């Protein structure tokens, strides 16, 4: 029987370390040819958008899609999870929290393989919903001594610093300027809604790892050409999707500071086909767009835990 899981259920069942492991395994299966992932597609009615992304993971026998609408004043997210062997609907899952955690988890996977082992200062641009799990994910894969945060609103960054200090038991401090944050950090995360770069890439120190997370549109770019051009390794979750969504890379491509042939996929890094880092001096960049395979991996983890714990509401679709 199929079940419905609410945002409250997902919050109860989905933890960051386990989600990181689930995504890491999914990327390994993708590298082995066991996952089919389709890029995000969008409909554009006058008042908003509908987005849909699909994947099938034969390694766990699950397939499905995430569909969401972005109409003022908010976005609404839903995952439909199916059995690969018989087409049965396993679950409908409210997926705002799921998306927040899996986006952080993808950064956690990339940081695990691409940041220096001794990287201990995280700098985050952004103080919103996604920034919270970005900090949580990086803290799960590196022993952080300090986190710095910057946003344009001093009150937002102070509130974020206090809340995340308590949540992670790590010193989190507001930075007064973008330069201050970049110069002091050896891991950077951009998790903003900015349409133009949020820091000067020429300030990045050798050995820094950058996770560009906030933009999934060709019209937006959180990192500048200098950041992309000096990166020794540029990794994306999907080249196919990056070509249609990565504004962060577009200008560098158009100005010949980067070629698509230089860009690699996260599955190659996780599976050992391509090293995420070869020296402590390299600057590395992960451009995250978010993939359906990540949603299916996270949703499958949530579903299995729900069944184990007896969580969820039976909905009985197609039972007859």
Model description:
This protein has 320 residues and is of the alpha/beta class. The protein contains 11 helices and 15 strands. The protein has helices at residues 7-13, 16-31, 96-114, 129-141, 154-168, 178-184, 225-230, 239-245, 247-254, 266-270, 292-309, and strands at 3-5, 35-43, 48-57, 62-71, 74-83, 89-94, 121-125, 146-150, 171-174, 187-190, 209-212, 233-236, 264-265, 284-287, 313-314. The chain has an 8-stranded parallel beta sheet with strand order 9-8-7-10-11-14-12-13, sandwiched between helices. A 7-stranded mixed beta sheet has the order 2-3-4-5-6-1-15. Strand 8, helix 5 (154-168) and strand 9 (171-174) form a beta-alpha-beta unit. The longest helix has 19 residues, at 96-114.
In short:
With 320 residues, this protein is an alpha/beta fold.
Secondary structure layout:
Elements lengths: L2 E3 L1 H7 L2 H16 L3 E9 L4 E10 L4 E10 L2 E10 L5 E6 L1 H19 L6 E5 L3 H13 L4 E5 L3 H15 L2 E4 L3 H7 L2 E4 L18 E4 L12 H6 L2 E4 L2 H7 L1 H8 L9 E2 H5 L13 E4 L4 H18 L3 E2 L6
Parallel strand pairs: 1-6, 7-8, 7-10, 8-9, 10-11, 11-14, 12-13, 12-14
Antiparallel strand pairs: 1-15, 2-3, 3-4, 4-5, 5-6
Helix pairs in contact: 2-3, 2-11, 3-4, 3-11
């Amino acid at each position: 029987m199929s079940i419905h899981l609410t945002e409250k259920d997902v919050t109860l069942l989905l933890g960051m370390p386990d989600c990181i492991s689930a995504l890491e395994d999914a990327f390994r299966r993708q590298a082995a040819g066991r996952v089919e992932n389709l890029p995000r597609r969008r409909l554009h009615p006058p008042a908003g958008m509908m987005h849909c992304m699909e994947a099938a993971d034969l390694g766990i026998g699950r397939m499905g899609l995430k569909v969401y609408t972005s109409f003022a004043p908010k976005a609404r997210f839903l995952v439909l999870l199916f059995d690969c062997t018989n087409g049965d609907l396993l679950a409908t899952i409210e997926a705002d929290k799921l998306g927040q955690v899996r986006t952080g988890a993808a950064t956690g996977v990339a940081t695990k393989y691409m940041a220096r082992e001794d990287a201990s200062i995280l700098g985050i641009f952004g103080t919103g919903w996604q920034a919270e799990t970005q900090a949580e994910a990086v803290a799960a894969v590196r022993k952080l001594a300090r986190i710095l945060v910057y946003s344009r609103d001093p009150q937002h960054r102070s509130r974020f610093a206090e809340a995340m200090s308590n949540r992670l038991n790590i010193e989190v401090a507001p930075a007064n300027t973008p330069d201050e944050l970049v110069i002091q950090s050896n891991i950077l995360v951009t998790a903003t809604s900015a349409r133009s770069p949020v820091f000067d890439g020429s300030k990045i120190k050798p050995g820094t790892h950058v996770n560009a997370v906030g933009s999934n549109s060709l019209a937006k770019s959180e990192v500048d050409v200098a950041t992309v051009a000096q990166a020794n390794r540029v990794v994306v979750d999907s080249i196919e999707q990056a070509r249609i969504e990565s504004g962060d890379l577009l200008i560098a491509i158009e100005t010949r500071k980067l070629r698509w042939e230089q860009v690699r996929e996260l599955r190659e890094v996780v599976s050992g086909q391509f090293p995420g880092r070869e020296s402590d001096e390299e600057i590395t960049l992960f451009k995250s767009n978010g993939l359906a395979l990540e949603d299916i991996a996270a949703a499958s983890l949530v579903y299995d835990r729900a069944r184990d714990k007896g969580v969820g509401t039976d909905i009985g679709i197609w039972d007859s």
